[in-house]
Amino acid sequence: MNKEKLAIGLGLAILLFAGFGVHAQLVANEQLQNAINNGVAFLDSQSNYDATDIAVLAVLDGVAPSYQFKQKAIQRVDQLDENHTFWRKWLLDEPINLNELTPFEVNLKYNLMYAKALTCTDLSNETIQSLANLVDNPQEEFGNYNNEHAILILQLYNQCPNASVFSTVISNTLNQQKHAILSQASSSSLDEQLERYCVLGLAGQQLTQSQLNEILLLQQVDGGWSTDYDLSKSTTYVHPTALALCALIKSQQNGVLP
Q: How far is CA 256 from CA 114, 118, 210, 248, 249, in A?
């Protein structure tokens, strides 16, 4: 009889533990979705988007179309100046002629690469190899963002109609850039760290639970994120918020490591 009671008690304990695990997961999922919803609401409340913000939203629109990130940028297209004509045309679904880019657009780092990716121009093994060759160089201005931009541009190319022809080499290059970022120490800049989390997710890398918790804990009361780890003296901006949303949405899609 005692053995039977013990077995019943053990069975109930297992059921209770399993039930607690399911409940905890539901709470975690709800917390993640609430953070995403609050971040999206923050983007809706902001009026000024620049080209770098739109670059992130362009990628996000492809991986999470239900949030209408491109539409949010379209509503703010007048914020773009004459030096960013191709972003304006892309948002408004107007034909983009790469020969008509302004000298500023052609010479701005990464800009021409984004323009080509958005127009699915020059998608070839050579182009993908040039993206594989983008590596971080701390001595170079913006050098610590080379790997991140390579992944963002590759993700845009991945949305092109003929991307399947190059699926293997794109996948290999994404993995190469992903491992390059994983080998780096955490950044002292929250903006850069959020960008790393974003592009890692885009490259198929699962974030750890502690990394996900870090992002959630750094969300401000207005739903946005800042460029500073110190919540007491930081101001929220569109760019880090878009990056944080990218990381959270990809965590929702990819799953999270323990």
A: 29, 30, 10, 10, 11
Asked whether 206 and 255 are in contact (CB, 8 A), the reply is: yes
Q: Tell me how far CA of residue 140 lies from CA of 143, 152, 233, in angstroms.
A: 5, 20, 29
Q: How far is CA 224 from the centre of its chain?
A: 15
Secondary structure of the chain in the HEC alphabet?
Answer: CHHHHHHHHHHHHHHHHHHHHHHHHHHHHHHHHHHHHHHHHHHHHCCCCCHHHHHHHHHHHHHCHHHCHHHHHHCCHHHCCHHHHHHHHHHCCCCCCHHHCCHHHHHCCCHHHHHHHHCCCCCCHHHHHHHHCCCCCCCCCCHHHHHHHHHHHHHHHCCCCCHHHHHHHHHHHHHHHHHHHHCCCCCCCHHHHHHHHHHHHHCCCCCEHHHHHHHHHCCCCCCCEECCCCHHHCCEEHHHHHHHHHHHHHHHHHCCEC
d(C-alpha 161, C-alpha 130), whole Å? 21
What does the block give as tokens for 183?
């080998």
Q: CA-CA distance, 195 to 10, in Å (whole number)?
A: 47
Q: What average pLDDT score do residues 141-167 get?
A: 87
Give domain limits for the chain: 34-254
Mean predicted confidence (pLDDT) in 35-58: 89
Structure tokens belonging to residue 108: 């701005």
Tokens of 11: 């069975």
pTM of the model: 0.82
